[in-house]
Amino acid sequence: MAGLYEKLILNRVSLDDYEKVMTIRNKEEVFDGRDRLPFQFHRIVGSSNTLAFAALLEDDSIAFSLAYIIDNGKTCVSKSSRVATKHEGKGVMKWLFKEMVDVVKASTGVLNLASLYFYESEERRTLHLTKSKAITTVDRAFTEFYINRRNLFTSKEKFSINTTSKIKLLDRQQLEVLLTLPHTSASLFPECRVVIDLVPYRPIKPSVAYMIQTTKSVIGSNLDDANSSLISFGNYSEVYQGLLYYIDLYGNVMKNIEAHIQYHMERIKNIESESDNFVIQIYCEKHANIDLVLATLKKFGFGLEENNPEYCLCVERNIR
User: Which residues form the Histidine N-acetyltransferase C-terminal domain (predicted)?
Assistant: First the structure.
């Protein structure tokens, strides 16, 4: 194994390296065909808060990972990692991750490293915690649904919710206020993190610019009552399996969840996509009323994927 490590070279990935990165792994093999990188590569790699790295072996890219720099430059999050099939289990990703973190530490003021793990049982959660040596953790539950676009249109007509009277579109300034109001922020984000698209931001003003960049819509309801407030962040991307729409929920899902979901479903209706196959992922707090979320999506005609709900654990540790 040491011989392989000696041959590896760390390469800083640029916008011109799209084809090299895409050849590392087939689209259908990465994240069960839900990989967004092939469709968002240029936006993500070109972002001011993103560093991208590849492991080269004899000039071929065999592994890749992104480093998101968030929290006003204090936290690094690794995402979109992949390794060539024939090099799986050989420690290549471990090597790339270490080299990447060393570069980030040397070139930025990053203090903390955030990592993401998925689990279905408390035993797996405990294992991840033990290995990560975390100082901070955030648990999120997520459910996944699927539907054909034509069935969504038919089922949506069953609803007569006056969506605009129950929800409010939030702009950057309004979101900044919500994040920094002590009582409201503590109620909506009790773990002091806002996990959007699997990136765990601190609820501070500098984070808002990136939150807005990575979401198509941010809506809220009952914002005058911290205990009843509900905020949802929505975004979408083409993926190998069709179109993926993901929603991050924060707050009291008992209040206006149906209006929030309908708003996002109306967004789906207007998305131009070559595929009629839609997948929707909803992330919420682990203790939220998951059954209510499931019931609401089923009303819209969505079928439930197997093994729902599952859980995501965001861990953070100090690297200085």
Answer: 165-285
CA-based nearest residue to 304, from 145, 147, 149: 145
pLDDT at residue 30, rounded to an integer: 92
Cα gap 103→107, rounded to integer Å: 6
Report residue 118 as tokens: 């998925």
Token code pair at residue 282: 């909803």
Q: What is the mean pLDDT of residues 230-252?
A: 92
Q: How far apart are CA 44 and CA 35, in angstroms?
A: 13
Is CATH 3.40.630.30 the classification given to domain 2-110?
A: yes
Q: What is the pTM of this model?
A: 0.90
Q: Cβ(51)–Cβ(104) under 8 Å?
A: yes
Domain ranges for the chain, please list them: 2-110, 138-318
Q: Is residue 256 scored above 90 in pLDDT?
A: no
- Could you report the per-residue pLDDT of 11-34, keeping only the tens digit for each? 999 999 999 999 999 989 999 889
Residue 84 reports pLDDT greater than 60: yes
**Cα–Cα distance between 100 and 277 in angstroms, integer?**
36
Domain covering 138-318 in this structure, CATH number: 3.40.630
Give the DSSP per-residue string, 133-178: T-SEEEEEEEEEEEEEHHHHHHHHTT----HHHH-EE--HHHHHHH
